[in-house]
Every structure is written in C-alpha cells, then in structure tokens.
Design a protein that fits this description.
By secondary structure, this protein is α/β, with parallel strands linked by helices. It contains 5 helices and 10 strands, in the order E-E-E-H-E-H-E-E-E-E-H-E-E-H-H. Residues about 135-150 have low confidence and may be disordered. It comes from Nocardioides massiliensis.
Length: about 150
C-alpha cells in the first residue's frame, strides 16, 4: 500500500487495512501534509476490494493532539481536505467500516477522528477532550457538538 515517512504508515494484513499516525515528535498533531497523507491512504483502502475494515492507530504516547497549532501560527491552512473533512477523515462516507484503536490522549481533532469512526476501541490509558469547545474558539465545531448533544437528549 502507501507509506509516507514521518506522517503515516499503512499496510494491509489479510482483509484489514492499518493506518498508523506517525508524527510522534508533534504528538501526532495533524498539519495539512499529514491530512493529505491520511486522505490518500483512506482512498487507497476504500478502493481495494480486499480491505473489509480499516483500523486507525498511532505511534507514540498520544493518539492525536489535534490540529498542529504551530503550523497554523506559521500561516499554514487548517488540515481540511475538501470532500473528506478535517484530517481527511471527518466527512468521509465510504462503506468500509473504520475502527479507531486509541491509546493515550485524543484531544481536539484527535477526538474528532475518533468520533468519525464507526467504532472506538480505547485502552484504559486513553483520554478524550474537546478543549476548543470550552474556549469557544471554533464556533462551527461548537455548533456541531451542540447538535450532537441535542440529538442525544
């Protein structure tokens, strides 16, 4: 399959496509290049009839710290891929089931990746947070979470 050093690692074993976030120096924070790499791997997996399920995991102590804020501060656009969503994942509509295998923190966009998956398997050491909701820095994300909250009530 595809491998993009320092960003994601991917391979197929049997009927399972594995995508591993691999930007450990940045706690797997997603920048635009990483989002493109994720989107490319997901497209490869979804077009492979042999892949019946996709598992997303991460190397390092964190699953994903969300958006790479340093990249944003340096003028890079948000890690959003048109038609595929944030990190190339959050707006995908493919039929292939996606499982998030989470160890460590999944904060901000990392939690959004988990929410975009069909199933989440989390270790006892996993933690989840949406700090932008508390800070109200992203009204779009706040509105979508408000809708989720209202739907659950």
């Amino acid at each position: 399959m595809t491998s993009t050093p320092d960003l994601v690692v991917s391979y197929v074993r049997g009927h399972v496509g594995f995508l591993t976030l691999n930007r450990t120096a940045k706690r797997n924070a997603v920048n635009l290049d990483m989002a493109r790499a994720i989107a490319d791997v997901m497209t490869d997996f979804e077009s492979d009839a042999n892949v019946l399920v996709i598992v997303i995991s991460a190397n390092g102590p964190a699953f994903c710290a969300g958006q790479d804020l340093q990249a944003l501060a340096n003028g890079e656009p948000e890690a959003f891929i048109v038609g595929q969503g944030w990190a190339g994942l959050t707006a995908r509509t493919a039929a292939t089931p996606v499982i998030a295998a989470i160890e460590g923190p999944a904060f901000g966009g990392g939690f959004e990746i988990a929410l975009a998956c069909d199933m989440v398997v989390a270790s006892m050491g996993a933690s989840f947070a949406l700090p932008e909701v508390r800070k109200m820095s992203s009204s779009l994300r706040h509105v979508s979470l408000r809708g989720l909250y209202e739907g659950l009530r």
